[in-house]
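Onboarding guide, step 5: your first structure request.
Type a short instruction followed by the sequence, for example:

Predict the 3D structure of this protein.
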Amino acid sequence: MSLVKSVIPQEYDRREMLRYAGVREATPEIEALLEECLAECEGIFSSKVCYLELDLDKAPDFLKDCKQLKGCERAVIFVATVGIGIDRLIKKYGVTSPSKALMLQAIGTERIESLCDSFCNGYESATSRFSPGYARLELDAQREIFSLLNPERSIGVALNTSLLMSPSKSVSAIFGIRSKK
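The system replies with structure tokens like these:
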């Protein structure tokens, strides 16, 4: 049975937001746009994580050959989301203000990455996280993760037939916990 945790992401990293937006040099206009978008985002994020900790000897088959888990005794499988609010804002401005929509995309990306980092940093001896579609873990592993965790019921994250998640600012990932020998 999976567990659910509300996690407080780290402070806003404006530099990362600008990087995700593709900004190489922040002009006063771009800085003002970022601040305007951040103000509009006030209170819309609902940061939640659904997760499962398991011994690797009892892990599902899709994890048994993951090189990223070598030397680990346990693994943590999780799905994290910052909620649907940012998707609504991005859609709202998608037609009327593409630059605002782009900045909101970047803010949402920074927020979900920060949430994942905060969650993973709560574990001592954790490896780097990896997600289906990376590190030789097939994208199909997404189905197994969703079957194990049932994040649609617990935190409102759904998986469509193309293996994309909704809300869009959601992540599924795995990390190992190294043995302390």
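Each response can be followed by summary notes, for example: Strands lie at 3-6, 48-55, 72-81, 158-159, 165-166, 170-178.
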